[in-house]
Recover the amino acids of this structure.
DNA sequence: AATTTATGTCAAT
DNA sequence: TTGACCTAAATTT
């Protein structure tokens, strides 16, 4: 269940474990057998994470890139040499029958592998294919080369609600349902407010808050927490799901800042949550 | 044991 | 706007 920050966690994991190494690939489930055969024995040169898309760049002839988009339910599972699960979505049964792509590096104690299941996209692309995919995406707040001005130019012209614009991958790449709810809260903006009615200052705040909370999540290995420590109960180190967010999935509960009951509404086909007091329209 | 849900996207209608 | 697609955990029967 990945939002964009998880893709950056995955990219970092690939860089640590596999970049610079010869990778052996296969497709136990068989659906990506051709692609796996084409990659087998190549060296991983590096990774690119952009929004919810991950690109792994390999040595050898074009196409050099593996493009992965996890969709709603895809995920990576990492294993060490004893086939002990290191991290990633818990796998109840270590059954590889639904593993679309497996990548392995190293031997003996140094062996590491990554297994991909359930992805909506898993294809080999060339440089042009990468450019085409990236061209559809807005700036990713987690990327050093991100230009927030590109997103602002779209927001300020749009009558669509800011809560919807943030979820639009062509506006801000990487934001999912959590951030589209939490970021407007952090900026004090009603998610229903049309883009044209958002001030530049408010947009700047939303951009920097989004970058901050997503970066924090990456540093925690993916765990999302947007609440400040003083806004949640003391629970030495452990932050429960319910205390981690100000509004996300907290409809009917009191706002952690002002006590007003948090509301929920349909926006597009999906939900959005907000505090009507902290987030004036 | 069966059904629903989940932090998503795209194509077809 | 709706349906298809992909998988595992949570929830209901």
């Amino acid at each position: 269940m990945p939002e964009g920050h998880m893709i950056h966690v995955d990219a970092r994991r690939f860089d640590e474990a596999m970049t610079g190494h010869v990778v052996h690939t296969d497709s136990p489930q068989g659906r990506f057998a051709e692609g796996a055969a084409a990659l087998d024995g190549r060296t991983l040169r590096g990774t690119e994470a952009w929004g919810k898309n991950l690109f792994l760049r390999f040595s050898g002839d074009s196409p050099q890139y593996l493009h992965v988009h996890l969709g709603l339910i895809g995920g990576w599972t990492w294993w060490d040499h004893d086939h002990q699960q290191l991290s990633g979505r818990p796998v109840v049964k270590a059954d590889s029958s639904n593993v679309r792509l497996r990548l392995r590096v190293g031997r003996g104690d140094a062996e590491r592998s990554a297994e991909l299941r359930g992805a909506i996209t898993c294809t080999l692309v060339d440089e042009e294919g990468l450019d085409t995919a990236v061209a559809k995406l807005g700036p990713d707040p987690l990327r050093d080369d991100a230009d927030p001005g590109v997103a602002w130019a779209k927001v300020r012209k749009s009558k669509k609600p800011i809560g919807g614009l943030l979820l639009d991958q062509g506006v801000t790449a990487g934001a999912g349902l959590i951030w589209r709810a939490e970021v407007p809260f952090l900026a004090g903006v009603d998610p229903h407010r049309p883009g044209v009615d958002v001030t530049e200052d408010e947009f700047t705040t939303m951009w920097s808050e989004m970058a901050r909370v997503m970066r924090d999540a990456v540093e925690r290995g993916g765990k999302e927490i947007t609440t400040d420590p003083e806004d949640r109960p003391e629970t030495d180190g452990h932050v429960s799901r319910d205390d981690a967010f100000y509004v996300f999935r907290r409809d009917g509960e009191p706002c952690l800042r002002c006590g007003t009951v948090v509301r929920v509404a349909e926006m597009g086909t999906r939900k959005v949550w907000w505090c009507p007091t902290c987030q004036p329209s």
